[in-house]
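Aim 2 progress update. The chain analyzed this quarter is reproduced below.
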Amino acid sequence: MFNLEFMRNAYFAGTMIAIVSAVIGTFVVARNMSFMTHTLSEIGFAGASFGIFIGWPPLNGMLLFTAISSILVGQLSGRIESRRESVISAISGLFIGLGILFLSISQKNASYATNILFGSVIGISAQDVQLMAILSALLLVVVLIVYRDLKADSFDSIGAKINGVNSQAISIVFLLLLALSVSVAAQIVGSLLIFILLTLPASSAKYFAHTVFSMIMLGVGFALAGVWLGLYLGYVTNWPVTFFIAFIEALIYGIALLYNSIQNHS
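Predicted structure tokens:
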């Protein structure tokens, strides 16, 4: 299996994506922003379609569109949390329409749409792996820099405000980090199902972990298990890798729920 270059590239890329997704996913779960993750995946589809339309790599288009939409959501919703979902829905609808338009007028066949929505392991080149490595490293460095304020704002927002944390600035930075995560991770699982890796590993980890750090580490382990095993099963069976990743992560989450139920009744 590892004699094939595309599988080596897929495992390298998958490892980076799993780590990034679990780290960011921890804060997605803490901030109750799963809906935003799903929305950014749809916006990523529009960005990739735009990239194809003007001759860019799909990743560049995804980065542009998700970054712009993140800033828009952060600025338009501001400090009024009740307005956030309405703003997200409006921006999501606009960008989905644009994605369909760009893909239509670019005159590309259906396989392009399929690759954007569901990912393509075979399509990952060595250059893609290098770019994902750079972006992943950049993302993790930024998380490390803002970790203390991000953790405080995500897990204890009231205490963070008392201690002078700028919640709006942290929110915009986090949305940009989330946008970058979506764009990078979509290369494996596609824009349509990226929320799986950004929500399920961290959601499973919270039932076993007692600290933020342990939640991140467990989330990384669960994400790596899903990606590595999913890639192997996809290679062996020739079935879609995304199906196996989704199934494995859902299975882990089910086990976590069962464990939590047993703990609560014991």
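The chain has a mean pLDDT of 86. Residues 1 and 7 are 7 Å apart (CA to CA). These observations will guide the mutagenesis experiments scheduled for the next reporting period.
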